[in-house]
Amino acid sequence: MINLSRFGVDFNVAEQTNPELDIFWKQIYHMWEEDTYASILPHLDPNKTFLDIGSWQGPISLIAQKYSKRCICFEPDPVAYKMLQENIRLSGFDNIIAVNKAVSSESSLSIGNNELGGGGSSYLRSDNSVKCDTISFEEILKTYDLNEDNISVIKVDIEGYECELLKDPLLKSINVPKHISLHAGFFQGTDKYYNDLKVFFGDNFDIPKNDFCSVFLNKM
Questions:
Q1: Between 3.30.2350.10, 2.60.34.10, 3.90.550.10, 3.40.50.150, what CATH number should domain 32-217 receive?
Q2: Order of strands across the sheet with 102-103?
Q3: What is the pLDDT of residues 157-196, one digit of tens each?
């Protein structure tokens, strides 16, 4: 078990069999994605729910739970999901709900990577692929009795699938802060990727043209 502390939260994560992930938690995590936390944490509300779409092993929600009524994590990678469950258990947090599904209007998705669980599983990769169950954004709202009055922040980090998920008009219509990771670097041609994103962001929004970056929208 690895003991960690960050942003006023003490928590634990499971020992990693992957050497790169072991280095991540023990040597890199303490300074990882400062901008992401700086965007999300001030908007959390102890009376509201934080939605973590693409939660991986839970580095964001393990912190966000302290400042939220509950965190609902969606992680389709079966290996990462098991680690997420174990990290929640080791930390003793009872307000994090882990869901082993991809958020999509499709009935199912396949995701792959050289090594599942490493945080890079994507529908764009066919190696070592697995089929995963899905849940639509509409189903999320109904299942967990959510609306824009009781959601604090929606975080989306789904390794390239954002170009599809963000086409959902219901997701756009929920007027709450959103933190969205962009992955143009996964695509050989980026014109279609950016055109797909315009469905969500609109023609007048200046979408960053970096291979990997994030966008924070306070409210649409």
A1: 3.40.50.150
A2: 102-103, 130-135, 108-111
A3: 999 999 999 999 999 999 999 999 999 999 988 999 999 9
